[in-house]
Amino acid sequence: MRALFVSMLVNLFYAFVSYILISWPREILRNSAAKVFSTSKGIKNVQLLNPIRYIDPIGILAFAFFDFGWTRSPLIDYPKAKKKDLFFYSLFGIVSSFLLFLVYGIIARYANNAMLFRILYTSAKWSLTYAFISILPIPPLDSTRMILAFLPSKYYEWYLKFNFYGVIFMIGLLVLWILPMIMHPFVIIITNVTNFIIFGNW
């Protein structure tokens, strides 16, 4: 029993570190790109140096137990955000996750330390998973903000209202085991792609 408890704590530690590596650098990359391409005052670069700010409790548990999940949404003042900037800011999030997948995967390929390898492998796989998850049209994921950029401003209030319900919806799908069943084949594909980047002969 004790060994099982210790093993669970170790797994949660690796999950926590990997989650920080897929969420915090993602927002740093996204905000760095936004500073170059965006002129909008509606996108707030607050607490960028605080990795805890981007932790979603349910999202991290979903990653730890199901190999997919989400992070906390960035702070956006939608009425002040220009539609073009909102679109590219959301797109930068998805692109950042894919870049992190490549970076972590390539570093893991040459890692000699077992602990470091495990963290990098998990971070690579979860980054690619998060890039895929972010494409799903469920608030508050990035793809919904990209769609919102093409809609009239009157829909912003509707979007903010359904941000909360979107998270509740995903939690409900988790509890009912629907989302894990839907994601399972995609997780297998993502794992195979990750294995190719890290172990493949290229």
In a nutshell, what does this entry contain?
This protein is mostly helical and 202 residues long.
Question: What secondary-structure arrangement, pairings included, does this model have?
Answer:
Blueprint (H helix, E strand, L loop, with lengths): L1 H36 L19 H10 L16 H27 L4 H20 L8 H7 L6 H21 L2 H22 L3
Helix pairs in contact: 1-3, 1-4, 3-4, 3-5, 3-7, 4-7
Describe the 3D structure.
- The chain has 202 residues and is mainly α.
- It has one domain.
- 71% of the residues lie in helices and 0% in strands.
- The chain has seven helices and no strands.
- The protein has helices spanning 2-37, 57-66, 83-109, 114-133, 142-148, 155-175, 178-199.
- Helix 1 packs across helix 3 (83-109), helix 1 crosses helix 4 (114-133) and helix 3 (83-109) packs antiparallel against helix 5.
- The protein is globular, with a radius of gyration of 17 Å.
- The N and C termini lie far apart (43 Å).
Oligomer: single chain
- Contiguous helical run count: 7
Termini gap? 43 Å
Please tell me how large the radius of gyration is: 17 Å
Q: Name the average pLDDT.
A: 90
**Structural class, from secondary structure content?**
mainly alpha
Question: Characteristics of this structure?
Answer:
single chain, 202 residues, mainly alpha
